[in-house]
């Protein structure tokens, strides 16, 4: 791999990407150079630094940077220094436009993706509206509902009913079968 594309925080010329990669990725999206911090959760977003370019949806890239901003704010609140960018990386950023006939994602209620590709799985603000298919959890420990205060990073996981095994329509507390059993089966 070209060391200029991985160890530089200065944006290299687009020509630093091998021609075959440029030709492959060009029709798929736009090339963008972004700086990375040493503590970025690149694995969660499928960012592979061994590759010259990482293809990523715009919504996931926005979630990536929103998570970083919140993490840096938490550091500052604790009196710690925010990480400085350590290197840069090329991304092929693409948009997905929703079709009004599409069913909305049951996690975020948007129509430009399905639940398996929801950016809320990686990061979401703690006050975001969550659909019935998801439940807000702490990204680090998966504690449902997160923690007291603001000293945690949120994401969404699948809302699975432990009574009827329904995924995405209701949780255990809202299960119609639970209501039937507490009403005496009526």
TrEMBL record:
Protein name (Swiss-Prot/TrEMBL): Uncharacterized protein
Domain of life: Eukaryota
Lineage per the UniProt record: Eukaryota, Viridiplantae, Streptophyta, Embryophyta, Tracheophyta
């Amino acid at each position: 791999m070209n060391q200029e594309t991985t160890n530089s925080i200065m944006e290299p010329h687009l020509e630093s990407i091998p021609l075959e990669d440029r030709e492959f990725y060009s029709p798929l999206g736009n090339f963008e150079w972004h700086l990375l911090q040493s503590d970025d959760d690149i694995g969660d977003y499928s960012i592979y630094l061994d590759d010259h370019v990482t293809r990523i949806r715009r919504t996931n890239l926005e979630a990536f940077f929103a998570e970083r901003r919140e993490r840096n704010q938490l550091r500052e609140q604790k009196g710690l220094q925010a990480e400085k960018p350590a290197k840069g990386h090329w991304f092929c950023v693409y948009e997905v436009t929703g079709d009004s006939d599409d069913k909305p994602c049951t996690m975020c209620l948007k129509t430009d993706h399905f639940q398996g590709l929801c950016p809320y799985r990686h990061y979401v603000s703690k006050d975001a509206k969550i659909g019935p298919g998801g439940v807000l959890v702490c990204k680090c420990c998966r504690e449902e509902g997160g923690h007291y205060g603001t000293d945690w990073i949120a994401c969404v996981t699948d809302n699975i009913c432990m009574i009827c095994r329904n995924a995405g329509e209701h949780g255990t507390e809202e299960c119609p079968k639970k209501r039937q059993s507490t009403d005496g089966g009526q």
